Structures are given as structure tokens and as C-alpha cells.
UniProtKB/TrEMBL annotation, chains A, B:
Molecular function in Gene Ontology: metal ion binding; transmembrane ascorbate ferrireductase activity
Superkingdom of source: Eukaryota
Keyword Zinc: no
Localization (cell): Late endosome membrane; Lysosome membrane
E.C. no: 7.2.1.3
Principal subcellular localization: membrane
Residue ranges annotated for the Cytochrome b561 domain, each copy included: 24-234
Topological type in the membrane: Multi-pass membrane protein
The reaction(s) this protein catalyses: Fe(3+)(out) + L-ascorbate(in) = monodehydro-L-ascorbate radical(in) + Fe(2+)(out) + H(+)
Cofactor(s) annotated in UniProt: heme b
Keywords: Electron transport, Endosome, Glycoprotein, Heme, Iron, Lysosome, Membrane, Metal-binding, Oxidoreductase, Translocase, Transmembrane, Transmembrane helix, Transport
Name of this chain's protein: Lysosomal membrane ascorbate-dependent ferrireductase CYB561A3
């Protein structure tokens, strides 16, 4: 009995550490959504879909919620030990659905900014932030489509899935990192745009008014969320065990399922 | 003979692929340095250390060269297969020296911007870019000091090194990722500062003048460099083999060396 306990101890510690990290991931993700929503609601005047700055406000909220928080949470669902004994197809569908929702919010977030720019005669896609953001969104869409083709379509051959899987996993982390860099540059750019001092009757960004401290803190929260998600993804002992994994990783509705 | 060739083939392919990636890493790093230097030399008026904007110009050059290019190259030196048969202490010193030089350039780059701000009465550390940048530099300094204490000091116990190594490797990649995010937000911010249109007689950033295309391309090059470095670091087959590695990973001037 004692021997069994001693043997199980490192594994129990690892599982406990996972759940602490996962709880942190959920809390930080929730805080990111609260902060980005409150920033745009309390300081930027709220939301509308009328071509004004209120329409632009949907852009940061939808990008942070979709491309960072939902995306990050979708990336770590396979790591939850409670799911390892369950049918993998169910968790494949959870993973794909969360990412589909993330993609939908991303597209809506892009529509918000393009439509706002077009309504105000502002050119699109000139800043480095926008170049990075549009490439990240395009890579995400391609990654989702390739993931669907490789891991959910019944006609997908095993050899193709084996070839795609390491690329899919690695690109997933890379797209997530790019999305964080895009968010940081976007928040920074927005604060310089709106906190201009005497030009538009605000306290300048350089004086660190409460809005600047709050939005900078949103940036710090996004970085902290990214740190926790990437740490969970990089921990080998938190990967879904191979045996269970291999058995259940058949394409959805494939000939074996 | 044929059997040996067939057995060696995947390994030779892996080594060849490494050198292609490494060559790409060197070329992209070189291009990053050329682009950031040319941008600040041709469009931003060149360099000085006199409290003017010419002093600020050292900031992007030193940060990109130190915190991105030198840092990234230092991170991958252990992966070069040619070094695996050689004494690891030599490569530890190369790794630590390159990172020391990177840290020196980073500190100089920070001095350039702090001194420029102070000379012009501009507050320091208010933007999200500056918060991220200063945290990245502080983490880098802490990482270097901990690396020195754990892997180069003769009194460092083996148990301490074993404990620190995974953290050192993981934090190395994380700091590199943060430094890229800081560079992207910095380039974006700088272009909004200087390409103001009629206010300062330039073509506005939104019209994508040649300087904007060039500096945005620098951002793309930095992302591409980051992609290659992180891909090299994440490939398990390119890690220095454990046996050789363990034998030679004694602290510098330790009782066994």
C-alpha cells in the first residue's frame, strides 16, 4: 500500500500541478476578457456597429476573446487528465468547435475594423500590427482547415495524419505566439491613438492616466496567459498518453468508428 | 555497405535539414541587422550620442542586434552537430559569451533610450512596449546570472544544475519570444511617431511610404528569424545527444575538469 502510494506520488503531484496551472489559465483568460471588455466599455464609450469608433471597440474585444483566450483554452483541452480515459473523438470535437468559435470571433473582429476603416476613409493594412494580425488570422484559418481535413474527415489516410500532426501541434503554438504579439502591438498602438493629451482633451499616454495603466495591465495579463498556456503545452508529462491517444485518434466517422 | 547507407539516410537527412535551417537562421539574422541599421541610417538620420533623436536611433539597432539576433544565435549553438564531438565546456563558453555580448548590447540599447528621454523631458516606461521591453531585459539579466551560477561556477552542485536546466531552456525560449513581441510593438510605435504626415512634413504611415514598407519588412524578417530559431530549438532530434552532453556538462573549472 505504502509502495503504491510512493510510486503514485510523483504522478499525483504532476496531476495536481496541472490542475493548478489549468485553473490559472482559466482565471487569466477570464481576466483578459473582463479587462478588454471593461476598457472598451468604460473608457472607449462602449459598443455599436455603426461605422463609428464604437464599432472599432469590438475589434480588441473579439480578437483577445477569440484569437487569444478561446484559442489558448482550445489548445490545452487534450492535456486535462480527466479526459484521458474518455473517447477522444468527443474531445476532438470540443477542440475543433472551440477553435471554430475562436475563428468566427476573429473574422468578426476583422470585419469590425475593416468596416470602421472603410466608413471613415482610413486605409487598411498599413501598420506592422495589421500585417502581423492579418497573417496570424490567415494562418489560423489555414490551420483550422488542414486540421479538419486531416483529423476529422473520414477519408483522411493515417499516413497523412501522421505527417500533419507534428506540424499541426507546432503551428498551433506558433500562431498563438503571433496572436499575442499582434495584441500587444495593437493595444500599444490604440493607446497612442486615443491618449493624445491636449489634441483631443485626454491625459497623454506618457502621463500614465488610469486608462493607460489599465490597458497596459491587460497587455501584462495577455502575456501571463500566454506564458501559462505555452508552459502547459510544453510539459511532456501532461501530454495525453500515447496508447490511449493512438487508439482513439481515428478520423471522425471513419471506417473504424 | 548499402544497409549502412540506408540506416544512415534518415540521420543524414536530419543533419542536412538542420544545416539548411541554420543557414536560414544566419541569413535572416544578418538581414535583420542590415535592415534595422539601414532604416535608422537612411531614413532616421543616422547615429550620435548627444541626447537628440540620433541617439534614440541606437535603441532599435542595439535591441534587434542584441536581444533578438545575437540571443537567437546563442540559443542554437548547442544544436550544431559539428560541435557534438567537441568538448562541451568550449561551447558553454561560446554560448555564455554570445549571451553576455547580447546582454551588453541590450543594456546599451536601454541606456540610449533612457538618456534620450531624460535629455528631452520625456517620461520613461509608460507604454506597453516599454513595460514589456524592460521586463524582457530584466528576465534576460536574471537568466544570464542564474545560468552562470548553475552551469559555469565550479561550486555549483549537480542537483542544482539538474533542477535549473529545464527551467533555463524553457525560459530562454520564452524570453526570446517576449523580445520579438517587444520589437514588433516598438517598430510599430516608432513608425506612428515619425510618419505623422503634414504635422512633421512626412508621408503618413497610413499611406505606406517606402520607409513604412521597409520597417514593416524588418518586422516580418524578425518574425521569420524567430520562427526558424524556435523551430530549431523545438526539434528533439537536433538536441545535443544526452550521453555526450551529460559527460561534458560539468561546471567550468569544477573538481572534475
Amino acid at each position: 500500500m505504502l509502495k503504491l502510494l510512493v510510486e503514485q506520488c510523483p504522478r499525483m503531484n504532476s496531476v495536481l500541478l496541472f490542475y493548478v496551472s489549468y485553473l490559472l489559465c482559466l482565471c487569466l483568460g477570464f481576466l483578459c476578457v473582463v479587462f478588454v471588455s471593461y476598457w472598451n466599455s468604460a473608457w472607449r464609450g462602449g459598443f455599436a456597429w455603426d461605422g463609428t469608433a464604437l464599432q472599432f471597440n469590438w475589434h480588441p474585444v473579439l480578437m483577445v476573446t477569440g484569437l487569444v483566450v478561446l484559442y489558448g483554452n482550445a489548445a490545452v483541452v487534450y492535456r486535462i487528465p480527466l479526459t484521458w480515459g474518455q473517447n477522444k473523438l468527443r474531445w476532438k470535437l470540443v477542440h475543433a468547435s472551440m477553435l471554430f468559435l475562436a475563428l468566427l470571433l476573429t473574422v468578426l473582429g476583422l470585419c469590425a475594423v475593416f468596416s470602421f476603416h472603410n466608413a471613415n476613409g482610413t486605409p487598411n493594412l498599413y501598420s506592422l500590427h495589421s500585417w502581423l494580425g492579418i497573417c496570424t488570422a490567415a494562418l489560423f484559418a489555414a490551420q483550422w482547415a488542414l486540421g479538419l481535413a486531416a483529423f476529422l474527415l473520414p477519408c483522411s489516410p493515417m499516413a497523412f495524419r501522421r505527417l500533419v500532426k507534428p506540424l499541426h501541434v507546432w503551428m498551433g503554438g506558433f500562431i498563438f505566439t503571433l496572436s499575442i504579439a499582434a495584441c500587444i502591438s495593437g493595444i500599444n498602438e490604440k493607446l497612442f491613438f486615443v491618449l493624445k493629451g491636449s489634441t483631443n482633451g485626454t491625459q497623454p499616454y506618457s502621463m500614465l492616466p488610469p486608462e493607460a495603466v489599465f490597458a497596459n495591465s491587460l497587455g501584462v495579463l495577455i502575456i501571463a496567459f500566454g506564458l501559462v498556456v505555452l508552459k502547459i503545452l510544453s510539459n511532456q508529462t501532461w501530454q495525453r498518453p500515447e496508447a490511449v491517444h493512438e487508439e482513439l485518434s481515428k478520423p471522425l466517422l471513419g471506417e473504424d468508428s
